[in-house]
Amino acid sequence: MKTNKILYLFIGIGIFLMNSCTDLDKEKLGAMTQENFFKSESDAYQSLTAAYSDLKDYRFTWTFWAFGDILSDDATYSGSDDDVSAYARMENYDYPADNGRVLNRYVLCYRAINKANQAIEGIEKMDNSLFSTYNKEQLIAEALFIRAFAHHELVKCYGDVPLFTHTPTVADKGTTRTPKAQVYEQIEKDLEAAAKVLPKRSETNYTTYAGRITQGTAYALLSRVYLFEEKFDKAKEAAYEVIKSNEYKLVDDYGFQFTVEGEHCSESIFEITHYDSPNQSAATNNNGNFHVLMMLPFGTTYGYGINQPLPALAAAYDEIGDTERKDATLLTPEDLKEWEAPEDYTKLERNRTGYYNQKYYLPPTQRSKEIRNNQLNIKVIRLAEVYLNYAEACTRGATKDEAEAKKYLKLLRDRAKLPPITSTGDALVNDILKERRLELAMEGFRFWDVIRFGKAPELFKGFVKGRDEILPIPQDEIDKSNGSITQNPR
Predict the structure, then answer these.
(1) What is the distance between the alpha carbons of residues 81 and 107, in angstroms, rounded to a whole number?
(2) Is the domain of 189 the same as that of 47?
(3) Helices in 274-401 by DSSP H: which ranges?
(4) pLDDT in tens, 23-68
(5) Whether residue 305 is found in the same domain as residue 162
(6) How many domains in the chain?
(7) Distances (CA, A) of 431 to 323, 337, 427, 438
(8) What are the φ/ψ torsions at residue 303 (nearest 5 degrees)?
């Protein structure tokens, strides 16, 4: 039998196939193909686990804040002088096509898509009788979500991108970019299909299931996707599916959910799970949250001091007296003096803004001895975002309901001990954008939100409308595709 499932066949879009082979006309002895791998439900589960693994790769999650926070008015790259210099062009909206972060998101998203496709195809072909511990359709639905999530991370960042709903073969080498409307159509289809099959949070054992995708996860992401498409009425419907399920609840203390103790709390809809690996410490071979190390203040034990919030973000909190969310988001030198050992505090340097990201901060007693292995989950979707998605959809859709929007905004404002929002019309829409900034600060939303609301030229100094909304396709990928993948215009 001939095989075209190759472990290291690079087809110009960062996709790796399943078997290693240099001659497609010969069977590789001992090759692992879909045909001889998917023989047990354990195989099926392992294939899905492989797809999940790319979501926790620090090179991918790095781009959450490197794009979402730092390209906005909320943060700057900071760190060493070399770090600052290397990222200055990105912060000035002169995006180099050879930037490492630009390449990493592209490659790792396609790697996750490829693994999800392998899982979907392999599990679909398996006999139902093989499954007793795991639910076959549920495993497929989780892979569909991962495929949709990765495609969305691509399309919002690069615009038109190659769409893959199958494991690529040699015949796909010349694949060109797919119009983003078509990519979004597939994303919607995958999420809708997943939502019909996935279990509710209350139907799962969170002792063993924490971190896995549930029905609420699919609907929540769908509400986010519809906002990017400006399908506001559909976004409202998807968000309300989460709300009416009563599966989630805001925690009383805003800051609690960003602590180790607050992981997978009642407000959590989807988070990437990390823990201190006892036997793994390599950068790409551990289960820890590398970004704790990156965002620790420079000089604190092993901190890099990257992704520092700007004074403008602090001022936005101060403008409305929002001390609750400010204190849980912005870490100050005064906080560090209280929490760090005196000898570490005196080593602080390169504090370029006066603030650090407290949502990624671990006190000394909770840090790993292996510098990359820190526990602390990454929050990807919270109930607060769904409330904000719903409120926005209620005010920007064809069917407007400002009272309904204010109802859910009030829940967030009550927790922050702030008065309710009373504005109407365009002013209410603008207030929702401000509320998104303060509620979701330093979680990778701001850059994309401001672009979606059409406010980027107004709020981002140097931003040019029609040019800076999307990043370049990595030049390395264009070169490897022999030109079949084209570059975004500048």
Answers:
(1) 27
(2) yes
(3) 290-295, 311-319, 323-329, 333-339, 342-345, 383-396
(4) 323 334 344 566 679 999 999 999 999 999 999 999 999 999 999 9
(5) no
(6) 2
(7) 18, 35, 6, 11
(8) -70, 150
